[in-house]
Amino acid sequence: MTLSFVSESVDQAWLTLPHAEAGNRIGLFGGSFNPPHSGHLLVAETARKRLALDQVWWLVTPGNPLKDHSHLAPLAHRLEMTSTLASGPHMRVTAYEQVLGSPYTARTVDMLKAKRPNLRFVWLMGADNLATFHRWQDWRSILAQVPVAVVNRPGATLSVLSAPMARAFGSCRLPEKDAALLPDLMPPAWTFLHAPLDETSSTALRRS
């Protein structure tokens, strides 16, 4: 699937990568965040605590290739909203995908590893994305490049059993009790984290 990539005007500060010290454990949390909400924050905080991450980088994408863009708020607006929500000391917000000129996670991960080889990255996502993860471009290469943490979301608990990714990489699943080891493991490796369920969704917020 291809996407016409449109560059939007945003402050230069959003287009730089956050600072991190060598050896830091960094969660990569990508999304449209249209708008960001408490469910997103719960995913980020759950992963940060359970994986003992030093930082979570919120990668606000110019546009998700698998979603309709007709109701997509401007990137600058979504960055401001995300920054307001993710204001904790371990949270960082960036639009670096715009610099890369591609909205695809596989390319983002590949480029981040090349630019910051001294960091230990983990890809973070809500379980609602797990069901369609196999539709992401080069999804297997994502699992080959970084460990992945999936955090439970309402209505998606059983995705850990039924999703094509979960079935294909079942032997690489780390027990939840050992989740703190994930950032140190060689990929492919992934884990499923249970968390309190927050029913908030971006779709519902846009409709309201």
Kindly provide the name of the CATH class: Alpha Beta
The radius of gyration is 16 Å
Could you tell me the number of beta strands?
A: 6
Can you give the mean pLDDT?
A: 90
CATH architecture level-2 label: 3-Layer(aba) Sandwich
**Inertia-based shape:** globular
Count of helix runs: 8
- Helical percent range? 25-40%
Largest sheet: 6 strands, parallel
Topology pattern, helix = H, strand = E: EHEHEHHEHEHHEH
Low-confidence stretches: none
Number of domains: 1
CATH topology: Rossmann fold
Tell me what portion of residues adopts beta-strand conformation: 15-25%
**Amino-to-carboxy terminus distance:** 31 Å
The CATH homologous superfamily is termed HUPs
User: Strand order across the biggest sheet?
Assistant: 3-2-1-4-5-6
Structural class: alpha/beta
Keywords:
208 residues; alpha/beta; Rossmann fold; six-stranded parallel sheet; globular
What does this protein look like?
The protein is α/β, with parallel strands linked by helices and 208 residues long. It has helices at 38-50, 75-85, 96-100, 105-115, 139-145, 159-162, 164-168, 202-207; strands spanning 25-31, 55-60, 91-94, 120-126, 148-151, 190-193. The protein has a single domain (22-207), classed as 3-Layer(aba) Sandwich (Rossmann fold), CATH 3.40.50.620. The chain contains eight helices and six strands. Strands 3-2-1-4-5-6 form a six-stranded parallel beta sheet, sandwiched between helices. Helix 5 (139-145) links the parallel strand 4 (120-126) and strand 5 (148-151). Helix 4 (105-115) runs parallel beside helix 5 (139-145). It is globular and about 45 Å long.
